[in-house]
Design a protein that fits this description.
single chain; about 150 residues; alpha+beta; two-stranded antiparallel ribbon; 4 helices; elongated; disordered C terminus
Length: about 150
């Protein structure tokens, strides 16, 4: 998996093959990275994964009794929803704790994480307004499954 870049990058257009037909799709670079990571994990090319997403969109429309052409869902939107859903399904409480979630700064490890400002690096406060003095620890994270607490 690629490391998140600092800040959100502009959309990147990339050509893909959907069912043997060339088309282009515009996604954020982090979405392209996630799509490639998912494809690698599942043993699928990005083209095949996108083709399967499109096939699912069309089948869902048919099952709702509308033609796929009338479905108000774009492939780009469906890909973003698929990526978020894929990773959400893989989330566990332990994984959230290991990632530092629940420690008052949801932006850690994301493209929205801010580097410490000069006053923060001199023993001030971190990006969430929490002390960065030695000995400070984040508040404990409560496990949604059994109610226990784990230090972050």
């Amino acid at each position: 998996m690629n490391t998140p870049q600092a800040g959100v990058e502009p959309l990147k257009s990339q050509n893909i093959m959907i069912g043997g037909h060339r088309t282009s799709m515009r996604l954020e670079p982090s979405m392209w990275d996630a799509l490639e990571d998912i494809g690698r994990r599942e043993g699928l090319t990005v083209n095949r994964l996108c083709t399967q997403i499109k096939e699912r969109i069309e089948e869902q429309a048919r099952r709702r009794g509308i033609s796929p052409e009338e479905a108000d869902v774009t492939l780009t939107s469906a890909v973003r929803v698929f990526i978020a859903s894929y990773y959400r399904r893989a989330c566990t409480e332990d994984g959230h704790v290991r990632a530092g979630h629940g420690g008052s700064d949801p932006f850690l490890g994301t493209p929205f994480e801010l580097p410490p400002s000069s006053d923060e690096t001199e023993g001030g406060t971190g990006s969430a307004g929490l002390s960065t003095e030695p000995g400070f620890s984040a508040p404990p994270a409560k496990c949604a499954v059994d109610g226990s607490y784990a230090e972050v």
